Amino acid sequence: MHPEMTKCESKYCGCLYYSANALARVMTRMAEEEFASTGFSPSYAFVLMTVNAQPGIQPKDLSTHMQLTPSTVTRLVEKLEFRGLLKRKITGRSTEIQLTSKGQELIGVIEKSWGNLYERYSNQIGEEEAKELTQKMNDALDKLTQ
User: CA-CA distances (angstroms) from residue 140 to 19, 86, 124?
Assistant: First the structure.
């Protein structure tokens, strides 16, 4: 815990909604700082990493994987395509998304930023606690979206 931080004193600290959003704001700020060197927001960086890991991924699968709406994924893909980092290939009735060579060149720096983010929050809250918190949040997400 940061030295000048104390336990939450807000009457809302017992509310999952309040705490999850407060944590999301802190994590978003950290992620934006770590990914700043890439020139991309964390959302764009995660799209590029996902497409790199699954070349030819279809927009619907990317949407599911990223836990974003299809319209949001379409907007992200269009902007990355405009920048020459992704390309869409229509095969029959499906669309496949792939990295361009320009996009592939960025993967190393993007993954380094992701590693830096992990290291940063793990150092602050402890690696085991970070892993446990991540697991608990994913378990809660699964239960809340069933």
Answer: 14, 33, 23
pLDDT tens digits, 57-92: 999 999 999 999 999 999 999 999 999 999 999 988
CA angle 133, 138, 139 (to 5 degrees): 95
By residue range, what is the domain housing residue 67? 16-144
pTM of structure: 0.87
Number of domain units in the chain: 1
CATH code at 48? 1.10.10.10
Closest Cα to residue 35, out of 119, 111, 90?
111
